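During the no-cost extension, the postdoctoral fellow (Dr. R.K.) reprocessed legacy sequence entries with the updated structure-token encoder. One reprocessed record is reproduced below for audit purposes.
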Amino acid sequence: MTATKSTATKSSMSAEVADKIRDAIINAAFDFGEALSEENLAAAFDVSRTPIREALNLLQLEGLVNIVPKSGTYVFTPSLEDIIELCEYRACLELQAAELSAMRNPLNLAAALERLLGQMEQAVHDGDIRIYGQLDTQYHLAFLENAGNRYLMQGYRMIMGRVATLRTQLALHAKNEPKRSMHDHAMMIQLIRENKISRLKTVLWTHIMRTSDNFMQAFQDNPIKPLTQKEVVRRKLQQGGAL
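Re-encoded structure tokens follow.
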């Protein structure tokens, strides 16, 4: 019994650490390609390296970090090909989920999306891009949550972190994107209420593909360059030793 409790505690600790590192990556606290030191992370969370290592393994399964043997762990660095394929896969999952959720749970879906849209409008008004990005992620996740298909949700969760990270980076580099996206979001709610599912899927597909184009343009305008070790050390010193 004691061994079981100990294992459960370690697993819970690893999951908690993974959640915090994931949030930091999604919210652009870490740059693409930035090295993640197990030693520094362990000190920051006041834990041993074991839960840190387990947390990083979990994040590697989600594609948020790359663990390179004899080198270290690095925040993922998407290529243009990654962005295209990720958005195509995302579109396949979201379109199917949108159709199922609009048929099975339209009232709850529309209410959830309307609530989130109101919060997104407030975030844009406040100029809080990171909060906007988090709400945007919740908006699209609502299709999966109301679809009633656990396999769609499992597939989506495996890419959700990478999509959310790209969304934050896009919002930071493409200042007009939130307003364009909110127009699409409002239209989708209206189409759900009118039971125009085919039109809903068309708008959602166009929305995701435009986002894909914007991702690629943003990263072409702001090429992703992994930080050198010198730059990492300099940044940490500027932050007073913080991660």
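The chain has a mean pLDDT of 86. The longest strand covers residues 65-68. The remaining legacy entries will be reprocessed before the final report is submitted.
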